[in-house]
């Protein structure tokens, strides 16, 4: 029935549910759990969840390592919530904001019984909803009945897993002429993913030849740098520098990918900045929050370039991962064009960390 939600629709709905603090039901043959985002929990929901059975606080292995909790499930850990733990305990374990003030949260006991696949799905959902990667998970006996009587979204693991791994197809929505400081001959194209996620943009300058390598930049959104002129990173000057170079050459394409904070979202990036204020570097801060250094999906860039008719680029970047990803997804990188602008007294350490830990070319 075409008026019923598809699996992609349910996935988008589940992300919103988690952001609203609602539980979602995750199922696999013979097993089901109820999952809630730790960050959106309140005391009433914690009590109701505990009435259903034992609750685990699922974290990434990154976060568990910081907390010195045992990791039995590879990339995630299932921390048992003690009987006397309250909402503040859950939040303190999930969120590193107060780690330095209250380093002792434990002893933390990790669950090693049974399968962790549904817990892993809960973490992926929280990440893709740009929430802290921490989820409360408890087993559920009659999932279909429970979901129906509580009006909850149900996601079967087998159906949803391939959708989470694949990059969602993007479709052009609208395009119009946009004269800019850097180039009067500008055109802004909007692309919308099928999965209800962020839209991404392509700024085409001039009318680049589709049969030759185009001067291209994959720029990830940085509200603080691009809009506010933050001195903590080099994003603003890189954005304007790339557009200026394309304007000067008369041709180019800048992809503005809405993957704020290397894919963790602006709220989490500000959590990371707060940890940086406590002395951690950009990579350590991501890890303490439970994220990888870089959670972006650069396949988006190739998908948009292909939609625009390009197959080869002169890529403005210092990031070898972007080059690798372009090549692996069918866009030839004919040349790497370095983009070194915007070094300040405030971002020297940030740029040095990217070079030392993330392989950026100096
Ligand atoms: N998590 C996190 N993200 C940051 C931080 N500083 C900047 N960012 C984000 O990092 C991304 C920078 O993206 P890009 O300009 O594409 O940079 P890049 O990966 O360094 O690669 P090139 O600039 O191409 O060399 C943006 O999404 C910023 O929001 C930080 O300290 N923590
Ligand atoms: Zn930035």
From TrEMBL:
One of its GO terms (molecular function) is GTP binding. GTP binds at residues 217-221, 238, 260-262, 282, 317, 322. Its EC number is 3.5.4.25. This is GTP cyclohydrolase-2. Belongs to the GTP cyclohydrolase II family. The gene is ribA. Its cofactor is Zn(2+). It comes from the Bacteria. Residues 175-338 form the GTP cyclohydrolase II domain. One of its GO terms (biological process) is riboflavin biosynthetic process. Keywords: GTP-binding, Hydrolase, Metal-binding, Nucleotide-binding, Riboflavin biosynthesis, Zinc. Zn(2+) binds at residues 222, 233, 235. It catalyses: GTP + 4 H2O = 2,5-diamino-6-hydroxy-4-(5-phosphoribosylamino)-pyrimidine + formate + 2 phosphate + 3 H(+). The active site is at residues 294, 296. Pathway: Cofactor biosynthesis; riboflavin biosynthesis; 5-amino-6-(D-ribitylamino)uracil from GTP: step 1/4. GO terms for cellular component: cytosol.
């Amino acid at each position: 029935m075409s008026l019923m939600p598809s699996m992609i629709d349910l996935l988008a709905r589940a992300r919103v549910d988690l952001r609203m603090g609602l539980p979602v039901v995750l199922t696999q043959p013979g097993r089901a759990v109820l999952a809630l985002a730790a960050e959106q929990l309140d005391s009433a929901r914690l009590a109701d969840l505990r009435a259903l059975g034992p609750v685990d606080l699922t974290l990434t292995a990154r976060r568990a390592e910081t907390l010195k909790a045992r990791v039995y499930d590879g990339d995630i850990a299932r921390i048992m919530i003690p009987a006397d733990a309250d909402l503040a305990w859950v939040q303190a374990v999930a969120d590193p904001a107060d780690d330095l003030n209250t380093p002792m949260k434990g002893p933390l006991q990790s669950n090693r019984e049974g399968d962790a696949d549904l817990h892993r799905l809960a973490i992926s959902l929280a990440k893709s909803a740009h929430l802290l990667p921490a989820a409360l998970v408890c087993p559920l006996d009659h999932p279909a009945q429970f979901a129906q009587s509580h009006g909850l979204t149900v996601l079967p693991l087998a159906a949803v897993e391939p959708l989470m791994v694949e990059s969602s197809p993007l479709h052009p929505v609208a395009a119009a002429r946009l004269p800019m400081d850097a180039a009067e001959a500008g055109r802004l194209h909007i692309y919308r993913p099928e999965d209800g996620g962020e839209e991404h943009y392509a700024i085409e300058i001039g009318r680049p030849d589709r049969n030759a390598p185009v001067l291209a930049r994959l720029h990830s959104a940085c509200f603080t740098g691009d809009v506010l002129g933050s001195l903590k990173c080099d994003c603003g000057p890189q954005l304007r520098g790339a557009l200026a170079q394309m304007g000067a050459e008369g041709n180019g394409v800048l992809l503005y990918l809405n993957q704020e904070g290397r894919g963790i979202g602006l709220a989490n990036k500000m959590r990371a900045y707060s940890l940086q204020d406590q002395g951690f570097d950009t990579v350590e801060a991501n890890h303490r929050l439970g994220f990888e250094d870089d959670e972006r999906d650069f396949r988006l860039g190739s998908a948009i370039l292909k939609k625009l008719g390009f197959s080869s680029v002169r890529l403005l970047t210092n990031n070898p991962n972007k080059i690798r990803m372009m090549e692996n997804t069918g866009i030839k990188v004919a040349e790497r064009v370095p983009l070194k602008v915007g070094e300040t007294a405030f971002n020297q350490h940030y740029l040095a960390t990217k070079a030392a830990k993330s392989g950026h070319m100096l």
